[in-house]
Amino acid sequence: MTEEEFLKQYNIHDFDVPLCTVDIAIFSLINNELHTLMVLREEHPFKGKWALPGGFIHLGEDDSTESAAHRTLRQKTGMKSAYLEQVKTVSSPKRDPRGWSLTVLYFALVDINQVKRIDTDKKSTWMPLSDLKQHDLAFDHIELIRSATNRLHAKATYTALPIELMPTEFTLTELQHVFEMILGRELQAKAFRNRVLSANMVAETGNSKISGKRPAKLFKSTGVNREMFFNRPLME
Amino acid sequence: MTEEEFLKQYNIHDFDVPLCTVDIAIFSLINNELHTLMVLREEHPFKGKWALPGGFIHLGEDDSTESAAHRTLRQKTGMKSAYLEQVKTVSSPKRDPRGWSLTVLYFALVDINQVKRIDTDKKSTWMPLSDLKQHDLAFDHIELIRSATNRLHAKATYTALPIELMPTEFTLTELQHVFEMILGRELQAKAFRNRVLSANMVAETGNSKISGKRPAKLFKSTGVNREMFFNRPLME
DNA sequence: TCAATAGTGTCTTTCAGACACTATGCT
DNA sequence: AGCATAGTGTCTGAAAGACACTATTGA
C-alpha cells in the first residue's frame, strides 16, 4: 500500500481515542489577592459546578493546544496577548465521566486592568485562591489549579515572572508585596530591589505615587522577566 | 436531561478529535556518548524512517499518558522502572499527515547495563545524539529530541539527575565527564565534587577502580538526586 | 622515580540574608 | 516635629570559580 492509499483509508473513528481538552488557570491580582477566573458549567458533566476555562480543541480553528488556550483566553478576557505557559498534561480514564481523557494545562498571568470583556454567555467569576477549597470544583480542576499555582510559586523564586500581573506602572514595594503573597513569606526589601534592579527587569517611569507618606518611584516592566532566570533562588 | 442520560447519548465519535500519542526520548550512555533509542517505522506514515518509541494510548491498558510511556519503556528496554519525566505536549494540524495530532513527550534516563531486552518485532537502534542530524527522522521527532535534550541540559545545571544514567558503581571523575558531555563544557573538579558530596547524592561503596594510575573511589547513587535541587546552577 | 590520574587547600567573587540606618513628604 | 513609608549601607555567610597544590599507584 502506498502512503497515499494508507492515508485515504485511515479513519481515526475506527479507533478508541481519548477526550482531549485544554484548560487554563488565568491568574490575576484583585484587591491585593491572587484570583483565578472560573466559569460555571452549564452542561453535563459537572453541570452547575465551577470549572477552569477551556474545553475541547477546535480542530478547524486551532493550530495547536497553545492557540486553543489563547482562543479561550481571548474569549474570556478579551485580551489578545498575555503571558501563557504550558504547565503539564494530565490524563486518566476516570477524571471525566465521559471516558478516558487528557487535558493540557496552561496558566496565564494577566493585569486585571487590561481585561476588557468577560463572555456574557457563560457565567464566570474571579475566585480568590483562598476560597477555592470551599468549592467543589468540576473534574480534577482543584488539582490542576494546585499544579499551576506550584509552577507560579517556583517561578517566583527564580524569575521575576509575577511582574506580568502588575499594572503598567507600579512601585517596587507593591511588586514586593505580590511576590510575598505568591511565596507566602516576607522578603527583605534590599535583596528584592537589588535583584530586580540589577537585572534591569524594571525601569523608572519618572513618575511617583504618593500614598500618604514618602512618594514611591513608579516603575514599568522592561519585558526582561519573560526569559531571564536568576542564578540563585530567593531564600530556600 | 439528567447526567446519566447525557452520558448515555454521548459519543466521542460524533466529534472531530485529534490523534493522540505519547513519545519518549530514552537516553543512555554508550561508549561515553549520549544515545537515544530509535525505532524503525514499519507502517505509514513515515514508513522506513526512524522515530522515537511511543505511539497511541491504549485506552484499555493505560491509566495515564505516563503509564503509556512506562509501557513503551518496558517493551523497548525490558525495564520495569527508570527515571521518567514529562517534557511537554506538542501539537499541530500538520505534524502527522493523518490529521490534527498531539503528542505528550517524555524523556527517560536509563543505565545501559540494565537494558534487558529490545523488542525483536520492531527494528530499533541506539543512535548517538551527534548522528541525529544526518537522519531524516519521522514526524517532528528531531524537534522533540531537541526539547528533551534541552530539558536534560537544564536539569544538569541545577540537579544531579544525570546520575540516573550511570552504572551501579561509578567514580566521581566518570560522573563529571558525563555532566561535561551533557553541558558541553568542562567543569572544575573541586566545585563538582563539593556539590554532589555535600548534598549526599552519592555514597562511597568502599570499592575502588584501578584504571592504570591512582585508584579512584567508587560511589553509588543514594537516590537523592531525583528530588533535590541545588540553589545555584553550575556556571551560567 | 616518574607519569598520570585522583583528589584537596585556599583565595576570590557573587549574591542573598539581616538589620540598622537614612530620606522624603504629609500632617 | 513626628511619623510612616521609601529606600540604602554594610556586614555575614554560602557556594561557585580558579588554580596551584598534594596523594596514590603501576610501571
Q: Count of helical segments of chain A? A: 5
Q: How big a fraction of the residues of chain A is strand?
A: 25-35%
How would you describe the oligomerization state of the chains in this entry? homodimer
| Regions with little confidence, pLDDT below 50 for 5+ residues of chain A | none
Measured distance between first and last alpha carbons of chain A: 60 Å
Major sheet of chain A: size, sense and barrel closure? 7 strands, mixed
Structural category of chain A is alpha+beta
CA-based shape of chain A: elongated
Largest interface: A-B, 43 and 43 residues
Order of helices and strands of chain A: HEEEEHEEEHEHHEE
Write down how many β-strands of chain A occur, each being a DSSP E stretch of 2 or more residues.
10
Give the helix level of chain A as a range of percent: 25-40%
Mean pLDDT of chain A: 94
Radius of gyration of chain A: 21 Å
Task: Summarize this structure as a short list of keywords or feature phrases.
alpha+beta; 5 helices; three-stranded antiparallel β-sheet; 236 residues; seven-stranded mixed β-sheet; DNA-binding; homodimer
Task: Kindly describe this structure.
2 copies of one chain form a homodimer. Chain A has 5 helices and 10 strands; from the N terminus they run H-E-E-E-E-H-E-E-E-H-E-H-H-E-E. Helix content of chain A is 25%, strand content 28%. Chain A has 236 residues and is α+β, with helices and mostly antiparallel strands. Chain A is elongated and about 75 Å long. In chain A, the strands form 2 sheets. In chain A, strands 1, 2, 3, 4, 5, 6 and 7 form a 7-stranded mixed β-sheet that branches. A 3-stranded antiparallel β-sheet of chain A has the order 8-10-9. In chain A, a hairpin with a 2-residue loop joins strand 1 (19-30) and strand 2 (33-40). The mean pLDDT of chain A is 94. At the A-B interface, helix 1 and strand 5 of A face helix 1 and strand 5 of B. Chain A binds a DNA duplex (27 and 27 nucleotides) through residues 171-173, 188-191, 193-195, 198, 210-217, 230-235.
